[in-house]
Amino acid sequence: MSSSIQVEKVSKIYRKKIALDQLSLNIGENKLTGIVGRNGVGKTTLLKLITGFIKPTSGQIKVLGLPPFNQLEVSEKTVYVDDHMYFSPSLTLQEILGHGESFYPNWNMELAQKLLNYFSINLKQSHTQLSKGTKSTFNVIFGLATAAEITVLDEPTTGMDLSVRQDFYRALIKDYIQTPRTILLSSHHLDEIENLIEDVVLIDKGNVKLHVPIEELKQYAIAITGEAKGVREWADHMNVLSEKKLTDASITLIVQNSDANKIEKAKKLGFKVSAVSASDTCVYLTDEKKGGIEDVFK
């Protein structure tokens, strides 16, 4: 599969602060990819570089074969949606849709109208008159209606009620099935989107920590609980992601699930073997090993 997005050794520095550090990433065509990671690790910077809002300090980015910054040919095929989208307060929502239709060649006005009607959004209002949650809803409707070849949704559900978020996710997957394209979905709630996305990119400290199919991430780690000395001996030469002390005599180790024979041996030794969620795995992979919150109160 060819790549619609190619990022090669890209760095971005803001006033001596390194936001991205020699990051490389390839995103295949017509993939729905989740971009996850803790706050401040470079997710938004990466997405703004991909959509041409900012230019890299070093390295190379190609979107649909072209560098995205200052490139109109890329701009009309990409859309970046977040909760800071700006539309002129002098325009009604209906007029905003009209401008979208005139700019984006694949604009789907029928979808926009149906979704706005479903969410009961009055098109005679201006964008500034909307509540935070309704602004987010309008923004994602605008983003979906563009049918842009590269659709970037950066924390798009900020301010939405749970029921609205769930409706949005259903609309997203239905629209993606009807109109396949490359979609990047950034979220702090991996548990909410893991059944939507095909691949997941975990960003940590300005670089890609992991880029795998979501099904692989769901099986990436496993928890082993038992007598401390025995569990540690069993885990020798294993990739241990985290250790939790339960009592003076027992622990739980979170280990990479890479050796089926070792896992079977753990069961035979009487250790408890438990699944680890994709969301928790991301936490363990990016843990700075400072201990748990309990350590604060010692």
Secondary-structure blueprint of this entry?
Layout: E1 3-14, E2 17-28, E3 32-36, H1 43-50, E4 58-63, H2 72-75, E5 78-81, H3 93-103, H4 109-118, H5 132-146, E6 150-154, H6 162-178, E7 182-186, H7 190-193, E8 199-204, E9 207-213, H8 214-218, E10 221-227, H9 228-234, E11 240-245, E12 250-256, H10 260-268, E13 272-275, H11 278-285
GO molecular function: ATP binding; ATP hydrolysis activity
Domain ABC transporter: 5-230
Keywords: ATP-binding, Nucleotide-binding, Transport
Question: What descriptive keywords fit this protein?
Answer:
alpha/beta; 29% strand; 11 helices; 4-stranded antiparallel beta sheet; 6-stranded mixed beta sheet; ABC_transporter-like_ATP-bd; ATP-binding; 2 domains; Rossmann fold; elongated; 33% helix; 298 residues; Alpha-Beta Plaits; single chain
Tell me about this structure.
With 298 residues, the chain is of the alpha/beta class. The protein has 2 domains: 3-216, P-loop containing nucleotide triphosphate hydrolases (Rossmann fold, 3-Layer(aba) Sandwich), CATH 3.40.50.300; 220-297, 2-Layer Sandwich (Alpha-Beta Plaits), CATH 3.30.70. The protein has helices at residues 43-50, 72-75, 93-103, 109-118, 132-146, 162-178, 190-193, 214-218, 228-234, 260-268, 278-285, and strands at 3-14, 17-28, 32-36, 58-63, 78-81, 150-154, 182-186, 199-204, 207-213, 221-227, 240-245, 250-256, 272-275. The chain has a 6-stranded mixed sheet with strand order 5-6-7-3-8-9, sandwiched between helices. The protein has a 4-stranded antiparallel sheet with strand order 11-12-10-13, with helices on both faces. A hairpin with a 2-residue loop joins strand 8 (199-204) and strand 9. Helix 4 runs antiparallel to helix 5 (132-146). The longest helix has 17 residues, at 162-178. The mean pLDDT is 93. Residues 5-230 form the ABC transporter domain. GO terms for molecular function: ATP binding; ATP hydrolysis activity.
